[in-house]
């Protein structure tokens, strides 16, 4: 499945929620489905700056593909970041760099987040993209 | 004789409270952070810029005299509100600046190596950090009186600290995080009996009822205009005349000098000695209007209304599974700080926000208190006299729904 198809699938899953509470519940379920990061990865190097909750994104590069895993002490933060991690995992650096996560606004995730939390999400995308750029340079 | 108090009526004085947010009527429960403003305050600010704007001090034209008169009148209004003399009222930016002023002027001039400043575990950072800064500069140290599990000051421990001959005791009248109303008059009397200078952070008490600094007999009392239905950027430091008179300037600049030569400057008497530069004239005027508005309300009925909201919120929230209320002192202002097992306070606040309910989640600038509570943050609903029982119902219902989404 291409990254665009993955994005479209996420949009299809998220669009039906008209009630923000149901959408949040879905995001929380996604958070619960992602195993916690080992404490050894919950370090400043992987901490996302600009996020009001503690959020770590642990990136890996294997066989030419990027992988990301998120963890946070706040479920909405972890769930939303995990949506992005899922989208951008198992993808080449070029694919990661080439797709902006505009769909989050389209499906109503961002408009129900406070500006502080939206800033955190922007930082997540920047971090994911920066890591892909690093992988590309080192390939 | 004030008109009978009715929250549904008075809230019409606050334009923002009629606002809908995310298609729902705004429920504003973040009053401990900042209060909303009645139309009379908003109008006073606009009117000043339309009709009176000019700089105060040394104006020799009618408009400047008008601005100066309005500014002076606000100082008198504040003084009368606190039962102080106008000369004892220093306009500052807010409680934070007031406490920094006391620390850097009175504290820096009077503290020395080995001296102790006593605060409490429930203080806002604004009543800890300024003392740490002056302690570093003078060789003094800061000690904190602990709190008990209900969120009240451990009076025995405080007494022990006071008996160790500290120079200054600085504590909040009401805790911003817990809502605890400290027995401030008793504590001040105890400290005063031991020769300790007393500083009261009144940021959370002024919005909830009248304060009489003469009856309290504190040396300093600080509050912010914006938490008391006035504008942001204006606050008040009350200082006893004899204390203010012995204090060196806090900042240098225009309007606080007597005579300046390149070799030496002499300073005017308080309060102007502590108001360097163009003051926040419109802020002071807005604050005066806010206090006049507040004083026209029936304070007793208002307090009873706030206590009823507190009781309703406490009973409603306590019944929810996994929810803990932090701060259960018997004497409490209308503030409910809470956490729910396995749910981050930011997530609670985000759910409530989706329902148009504004609360605060975080450490509330009280990290030492959070450490004491064993939390990194809490969710906090804080009420003002214009909040309604229906709003408390919405809070409880939405927190309940939030918990359901997590289970």
What's the total count of β strands of chain B?
17
Instruction: Please report the number of helical segments of chain B.
Output: 14
Count of structural domains of chain A: 1
- Calculate the terminal CA-CA distance of chain B, rounded to whole Å: 52 Å
Number of helices in the DSSP assignment of chain A: 6
Span between N and C termini of chain A? 23 Å
CATH topology of chain A: Sufe protein. Chain: A
Broad shape of chain B: globular
The oligomeric state is heterodimer
Helix content of chain A: 40-55%
Radius of gyration of chain B: 22 Å
| Most strands sheet of chain A | 2 strands, antiparallel
Write structural notes for this entry.
The complex is a heterodimer of chains A (139) and B (407). With 139 residues, chain A is mainly alpha-helical. Chain A has one domain: Sufe protein. Chain: A. Chain A has 6 helices and 2 strands. In chain A, strands 1-2 form a two-stranded antiparallel ribbon. In chain A, a hairpin with a 2-residue loop joins strand 1 and strand 2. The model of chain A has no long low-confidence stretch (mean pLDDT 89). Chain B is of the alpha/beta class and 407 residues long. In chain B, strand 8, helix 8 and strand 9 form a beta-alpha-beta unit. In chain B, helix 2 packs antiparallel against helix 10, helix 4 runs parallel beside helix 5 and helix 11 runs parallel beside helix 14. Chain B is globular and about 70 Å long. In chain B, 52% of the residues are buried. The mean pLDDT of chain B is 96. At the A-B interface, helix 2 and helix 3 of A face helix 12 and helix 14 of B.
């Amino acid at each position: 499945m291409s990254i665009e198809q993955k994005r479209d699938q996420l949009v299809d899953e998220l669009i039906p929620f008209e009630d923000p509470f149901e959408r949040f519940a879905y995001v929380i379920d996604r958070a619960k489905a992602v195993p916690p990061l080992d404490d050894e990865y919950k370090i400043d190097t992987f901490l996302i700056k600009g996020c009001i909750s503690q959020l770590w994104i642990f990136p890996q590069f294997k066989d030419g593909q990027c992988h990301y895993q998120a963890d946070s002490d706040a479920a909405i933060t972890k769930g939303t970041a995990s949506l992005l991690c899922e989208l951008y995992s198992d993808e080449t650096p070029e694919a990661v760099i080439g797709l902006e996560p505009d769909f989050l606004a389209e499906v109503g995730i961002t408009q129900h987040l406070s500006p502080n939390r939206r800033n955190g999400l922007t930082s997540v995308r920047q971090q994911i993209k920066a890591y892909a750029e690093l992988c590309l340079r080192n390939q | 004789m004030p008109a009978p108090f009715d929250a549904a009526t008075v809230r019409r004085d606050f334009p923002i409270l009629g606002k809908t947010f995310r298609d729902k009527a705004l429920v504003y429960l973040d009053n401990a952070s900042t209060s909303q403003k009645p139309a009379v305050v908003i109008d006073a600010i606009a009117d000043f810029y339309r009709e009176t704007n000019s700089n105060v001090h040394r104006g020799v034209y009618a408009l400047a005299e008008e601005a100066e008169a309005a500014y002076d009148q606000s100082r008198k209004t504040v003084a009368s509100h606190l039962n102080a003399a106008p000369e004892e009222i220093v306009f500052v930016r807010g409680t934070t600046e007031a406490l920094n002023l006391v620390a850097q002027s009175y504290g820096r001039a009077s503290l020395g190596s080995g001296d102790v400043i006593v605060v409490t575990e429930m203080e806002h950072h604004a009543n800890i950090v300024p003392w740490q800064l002056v302690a570093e500069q003078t060789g003094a140290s800061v000690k904190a009186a602990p709190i008990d599990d209900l969120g009240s000051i451990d009076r025995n421990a405080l007494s022990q600290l006071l008996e160790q001959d500290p120079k200054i005791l600085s504590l909040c009248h009401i805790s911003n995080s817990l809502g605890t109303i400290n027995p401030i008059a008793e504590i001040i009397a105890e400290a005063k009996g031991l020769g300790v200078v007393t500083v009261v952070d009144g940021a959370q008490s002024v919005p909830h009822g009248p304060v009489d600094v003469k009856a309290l007999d504190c040396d300093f009392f600080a509050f912010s205009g914006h938490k008391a239905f006035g504008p942001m950027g204006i606050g008040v430091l009350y200082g006893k005349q004899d204390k203010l008179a012995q204090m060196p300037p806090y900042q240098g600049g225009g309007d606080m000098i007597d005579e300046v030569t390149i070799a030496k400057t002499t300073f005017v008497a308080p309060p102007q000695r502590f108001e360097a530069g163009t003051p926040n004239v419109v802020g002071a005027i807005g604050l005066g209007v806010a206090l006049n508005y507040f004083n026209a309300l029936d304070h007793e009925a208002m307090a009873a209304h706030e206590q009823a909201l507190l009781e309703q919120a406490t009973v409603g929230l306590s019944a929810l599974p996994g929810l803990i209320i932090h701060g259960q002192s018997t004497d409490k202002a209308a503030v409910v700080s809470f956490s729910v097992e396995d749910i981050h306070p930011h997530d609670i606040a985000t759910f409530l926000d989706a329902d148009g309910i504004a609360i605060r989640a975080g450490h509330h600038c009280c990290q030492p208190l959070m450490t004491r509570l064993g939390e990194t943050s809490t969710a906090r609903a804080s009420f003002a006299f214009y909040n309604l029982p229906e709003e408390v119902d919405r809070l409880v219902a939405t927190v309940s729904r939030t918990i359901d989404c997590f289970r």
